[in-house]
């Protein structure tokens, strides 16, 4: 599962350019001379490189914008020419998409996510905390058991997972998908928070214990609040990962005995895409996609640093 | 009665681990283990498997021409996709971090607007694969309304009556898939390599500068060798991603169920696995395939880690 929860990766927040200039010893005459030479030596590379980067930027943004624009066109405009500009910006497609199922998928996804993300965070933090701060037999074993899941391809587990969930009568149910999401988010969450809890100072915690707090109380009232930055990073990671999850819902959320399937948003969009292939209402499909993309965009643009740090965390050593 | 301190601690540990472990063992570890057992059975996937056939599934796999074709495609993806992604990501990371024209000290400065470009480049990574599929479905459309065809027509490479058949063409389909993979992952590794580059002490660049090294030289002699660790990690993770590609192939390419492209020209192991499991009723066979994917991934990771092992420089 590519960009989602099994994948882990690192550690350092990718922020800032290397080194903010402070006191520099090379800004004397000779230094400037060298600097200039250095700059010139890469002039060709620079023009070529910058140009190429701009092109890549357009390649990334272009298709996205093009499809979002498509949501405002009407069908005949869309089928007319790829270059047409929406004549009158209409929101019809959005309301059509909303009524063809997006609202239901959105509701189902939100219900699942509210529970799965909270439970992932709670369970992940509990396990990581105990493993990071207590010595007991089997500690290393359990830690590696959790973390090993990071590298395993989901396909390996897929077939038995389906039957496991089926045996528990949880196919096509919210609780089934919630538990599976929690389980598959565990490796990365434990890995990330384990490192985090290790770095926290023990002084405050010991003081709380001396004051008569129980271990449980010390965890919830002292350690969790201190771990907030880590919890936020891994929380955003899990929200995005579970929101974007595709494979697990496809396998687990299918209609069982003729009842309506509880589709998740990604899954619903793809089924909408297949359906639109026949009905030809592409503006509605594009509008549905835009609706599904908006929350992700909002999260990404507001927490862009944490998202990049969280997603790349763990890849480095 | 007050419990002894040690007992209380044990109880606490057990109560905190019970829930997470139960969920994790039930839905992750146990299915992983079961796969190995099921792969030795003939199993339709309906009733519990009854007949143990030992290694028959594995023997069959290597006589299955579709499987071999899919394996070949996975190997092509495995070589091309990580290579292209890493080269591009490295180049971009270098430009964004140290490619600046009027570098402050030692020319160590990103090009203008690098913060903005970083945000843009990373963006595909947060998009759901479903959205990526819809985007490229529309872009690859094999008529003049599709974005890419509109571009090739504008460029005069073809005329409106003969649009390119991107996903329907046996020669192109795999490359179209790989293009999307690269499109999606470059930003991620760009950020990863940037983080690694920022850990390189600035003195190294200063020293290189004072010794009269140009920018290209600095890149190959200083930056690259020091990034070796991250490149190695990137290879391993890209290999895992390369063995995946399920959603893209399954939804984008034509095929009866779970895609596969024209005459299996875009088939990958993951889609063939799913078809055997959910359509053809060969769950045991699908499990054997899962095990093969697992071992390929494992071997690749080990090979990569070994081949790229170098003396690590601490700084």
Your description of this structure?
The complex is a heterodimer of chains A (317) and B (315). Chain A has 14 helices and no strands. Chain A is an all-alpha fold and 317 residues long. Chain B contains 13 helices and two strands. Chain B has a two-stranded antiparallel ribbon. Chain B is globular.
Mean of pLDDT of chain B: 81
Tell me the distance between the termini of chain A: 21 Å
Number of strands of chain B: 2
Strand content of chain B: under 5%
Give a brief rundown of this model.
The complex is a heterodimer of chains A (317) and B (315). In chain A, 71% of the residues lie in helices and 0% in strands.
Which helices and strands appear, and what pairs or packs with what?
The complex is a heterodimer of chains A (about 325) and B (about 325).
Chain A: H1 29-41, H2 43-70, H3 75-80, H4 92-133, H5 139-148, H6 155-167, H7 174-199, H8 203-210, H9 215-226, H10 228-244, H11 247-252, H12 265-279, H13 282-302, H14 304-312
Helix pairs in contact in A: 2-13, 4-7, 4-10, 4-12, 4-13, 5-7, 7-10, 8-9, 10-14, 12-13
Chain B: H1 5-38, E1 41-42, E2 51-52, H2 56-61, H3 65-98, H4 114-122, H5 129-140, H6 147-154, H7 173-198, H8 202-210, H9 215-226, H10 228-242, H11 246-252, H12 269-278, H13 283-307
Antiparallel strand pairs in B: 1-2
Helix pairs in contact in B: 3-7, 3-10, 4-7, 5-11, 7-10, 10-13, 12-13
């Amino acid at each position: 599962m590519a960009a989602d929860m099994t994948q882990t990766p690192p550690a350092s927040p990718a922020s800032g350019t290397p080194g903010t200039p402070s006191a520099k010893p090379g800004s004397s005459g000779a230094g400037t001379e060298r600097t200039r030479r250095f700059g010139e030596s890469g002039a060709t590379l620079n023009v070529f490189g910058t140009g190429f980067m701009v092109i890549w930027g357009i390649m990334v943004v272009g298709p996205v914008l093009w499809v979002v624009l498509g949501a405002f066109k009407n069908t005949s405009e869309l089928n007319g020419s790829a270059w047409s500009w929406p004549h009158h910006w209409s929101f019809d497609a959005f309301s059509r998409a909303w009524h063809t199922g997006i609202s239901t998928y959105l509701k189902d996804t939100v219900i699942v996510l509210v529970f799965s993300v909270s439970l992932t965070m709670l369970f992940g933090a509990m396990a990581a905390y105990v493993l990071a701060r207590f010595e007991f037999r089997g500690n290393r074993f359990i830690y590696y058991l959790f973390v090993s899941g990071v590298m395993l391809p989901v396909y390996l587990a897929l077939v038995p997972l389906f039957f496991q969930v089926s045996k528990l009568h949880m196919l096509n149910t919210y609780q089934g998908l919630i538990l599976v999401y929690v389980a598959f988010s565990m490796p990365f969450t434990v890995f990330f928070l384990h490192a985090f809890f290790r770095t926290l100072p023990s002084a405050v915690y010991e003081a709380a214990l001396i004051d008569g707090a129980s271990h449980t109380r010390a965890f919830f009232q002292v350690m969790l609040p201190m771990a907030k930055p880590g919890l936020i990073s891994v929380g955003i990671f899990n929200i995005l990962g579970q929101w974007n999850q595709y494979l697990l819902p496809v396998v687990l959320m299918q209609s069982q005995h003729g009842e309506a399937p509880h589709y998740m948003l990604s899954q619903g969009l793809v089924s909408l895409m297949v359906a639109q292939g026949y009905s030809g209402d592409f503006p509605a499909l594009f509008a549905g996609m835009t609706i599904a993309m908006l929350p992700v965009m909002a999260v990404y643009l507001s927490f862009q640093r944490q998202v990049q740090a969280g997603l790349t965390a763990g890849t480095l050593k | 009665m007050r419990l002894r301190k040690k007992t209380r601690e044990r109880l606490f540990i057990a109560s905190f681990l019970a829930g997470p472990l139960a969920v994790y063992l039930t839905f992750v570890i146990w299915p992983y283990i079961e796969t190995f057992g099921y792969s030795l059975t003939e199993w339709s996937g309906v009733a519990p498997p009854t007949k143990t056939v030992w290694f028959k599934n594995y023997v069959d796999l290597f006589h299955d021409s579709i499987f071999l074709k899919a394996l070949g495609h996975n190997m092509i993806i495995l070589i091309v996709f990580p290579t292209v992604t890493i080269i591009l990501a490295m180049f971009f990371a270098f430009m964004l971090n140290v490619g600046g024209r009027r570098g402050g000290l030692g020319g160590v400065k990103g090009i203008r607007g690098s913060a903005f470009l970083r945000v843009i480049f990373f963006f595909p990574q947060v998009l759901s694969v479903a959205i990526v599929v819809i985007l490229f479905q529309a872009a690859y459309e094999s008529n003049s309304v599709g974005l890419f065809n509109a571009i090739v027509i504008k460029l005069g490479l073809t005329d409106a009556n003969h649009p390119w058949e991107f996903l329907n063409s046996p020669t192109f389909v795999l490359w179209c898939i790989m293009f999307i993979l690269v499109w999606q992952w470059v930003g991620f590794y760009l950020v990863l390599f940037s983080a690694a580059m920022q850990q390189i002490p600035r003195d190294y660049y200063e020293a290189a500068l004072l010794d009269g090294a140009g920018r290209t030289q600095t890149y190959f002699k200083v930056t690259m060798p020091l990034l070796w660790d991250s490149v190695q990690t990137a290879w391993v993770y890209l290999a895992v991603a390369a063995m995946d590609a399920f959603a893209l192939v399954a939804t984008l390419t034509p095929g009866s169920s779970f895609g596969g492209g024209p005459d299996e020209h875009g088939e990958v192991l993951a889609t063939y696995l799913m078809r055997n499991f959910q359509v053809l009723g060969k769950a045991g066979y699908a499990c054997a395939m899962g095990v093969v994917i697992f071992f390929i991934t494992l071997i690749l990771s080990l090979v990569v880690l070994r081949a790229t092992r170098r003396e690590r420089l601490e700084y």
